[in-house]
């Protein structure tokens, strides 16, 4: 029979304490408070090990720490686009078009609270320029609409009363101000002005007409709606080169009027995670390298998989605390469009929550009030169920008061501090330690669990751990159940459900000595995996899941599948498209509902002509209509140019309302931004098809399928795509799937 490892380690631990720590009594275990230290200059000649050690001295500003502690916040996109069905408006809309029938911001607050969110960011102005507060600097605002002009005040008052923080997104782009005779890109010279105009605390700025306009509006938001937690900025510019944004002046204004607000994305406090799908990094470092001082930074989007490893730090001139915010939308698109708009399910959103909140990031989830002015019932129900599950899982820490020991015990910062329920107490090993292993034994025997949580006290000792593994004592041996790279503010490691009385944490790589403030263990409900629904070129529908389920139940009539619904044995034929809903089942257990809507499949389609293709296999033009989003068409990159074109023969005449474009999942280059569509009934004589919009909005960041709607329905056998401009300026085109819209 094998020895109990915990008892053996206990004996070694006591011996180690006597040898290395003498008879000193342990202190409170609380690490001394440390001042913020967000940037450190790297001395010339430092080697990789010295730089890694220096990185542990980088700590967040107080406002960054307060922001990080929120963990989960909501984004509200509600405005003119809600009523026009656009993602990007035109700026020519009339204020009277904004007309919610039952506007109720308190419903947004209730929904956010039930989801477990700690704050909201409201889209005060999107790219169309319509202002959601009664700004005195424009008539293009809610004050001239049928809606309550005090929406912003009601929202702010409700947020603060409910204990939620409030931030704003004020788009730098402004298509209304780009109209003739207005301020955006009007060529005005910078002049000395005082902002906020007429305010006792106004300060001088040297800015042009549009920057003055933007800063006056920013000041209105900062001064009139109480404490502001976050200003969310981006670099959206619908006409690059026409208007320069004076970010440094904006930052100064924010710091002066709301010093506790973080400036996110296109700003110095919080960086964008790098995508709008909610994808996260395996190693999310908050300490990143800079090649110049903060005031010289342009805060470009950082989308590389590795931002802060030792290799990345090796050539740094400065080390800077720049944590990540992970954002995505509940629906396909940032604004409500219609009842057919795809809504992500609870399981998918929970997965993003675990990966972001549990991956040293803050999760920013977009909610989309509909034309009534309320978050749709289905969306709200999903958020409520999600919040209830999070609360249920994390209300019972199975490791609370559990015994924790290590061979190299530190008399001041004991391992038992990790399970004492006090986030202020910490563990770090004795100075002589060469290996870092912790052993945890549950106080009441065996426990069933599948989530392990680790935390580093980042405000005191920075971010240190580079890799670790977690093992459980199962059948008289240690079995690895999880591993990771960075820890940071909070790390959640999900595993299969195991039953054990002991855990082991092995820290394999670290910058300096490791310091942890908490180990916690939880048991989450594991439902059957939600099915993935896929359709092939022939219009046949298949179901799968990871891990694989033994049985799928489905419907094709729009109803919710039950245990009595059709069982999936063979591919489901959908020659005319339709909506498929499915669940995976086992015994009396069932998954969340998966739903997918398809239009007419490309069964008879063929490519009749194309301008170029990068290769005849991997990047063939045929990939654009093969029904598989994993395969890609890329036009010729070497010596390529725009426009690029691709013509499709449907085989029969189709009655179309529009077309759809699906961007490649993992490629950002060559994504089309402006298109022209032509139609023909013989493949020779072509006419230009009038479109509602010839622009693909936000294609670089939002990878959901894009709709190109016709101004009027059209019957045609041939369609020609002409790609005129790309979002990144590259002279080639990439596409995963080109489809049709008939409904």
Q: Which oligomeric state applies?
A: single chain
Main beta sheet strand tally, sense and closure = 8 strands, parallel
Give me the Rg, rounded. Answer: 28 Å
N-to-C CA distance: 69 Å
Folded structure, characterized:
By secondary structure, the protein is an alpha+beta fold. It is built from twelve helices and 37 strands. The strands form nine sheets. The chain has an eight-stranded parallel sheet with strand order 8-7-4-3-2-13-12-9. Strands 30, 32, 33, 34, 35 and 37 form a six-stranded antiparallel sheet that branches. Strands 14-15-20-17-18 form a five-stranded antiparallel sheet, with helices on one face. The relative contact order is 0.10. Mean pLDDT is 92; it is low at 14-26.
Task: Itemize the secondary structure elements and their pairings.
Elements: H1 5-21, E1 39-41, H2 48-55, H3 62-70, E2 72-76, H4 80-84, H5 105-115, E3 119-125, H6 151-162, E4 165-170, E5 191-195, E6 203-207, H7 209-224, E7 230-233, H8 247-257, E8 262-265, E9 271-272, E10 287-290, H9 310-313, E11 318-321, E12 324-329, H10 346-357, E13 361-367, H11 377-394, E14 403-405, E15 436-441, E16 447-455, H12 458-461, E17 465-474, E18 477-484, E19 491-500, E20 502-510, E21 518-522, E22 532-535, E23 540-544, E24 551-555, E25 566-567, E26 572-573, E27 578-586, E28 589-590, E29 594-598, E30 606-610, E31 633-634, E32 644-662, E33 672-680, E34 687-688, E35 706-726, E36 734-735, E37 737-741
Parallel strand pairs: 2-3, 2-13, 3-4, 4-7, 7-8, 9-12, 12-13
Antiparallel strand pairs: 1-11, 5-6, 10-11, 14-15, 15-20, 16-19, 16-21, 17-18, 17-20, 22-23, 23-26, 24-25, 24-27, 27-28, 27-29, 30-32, 31-36, 32-35, 32-37, 33-34, 33-35
Helix pairs in contact: 5-6, 5-11, 7-8, 10-11
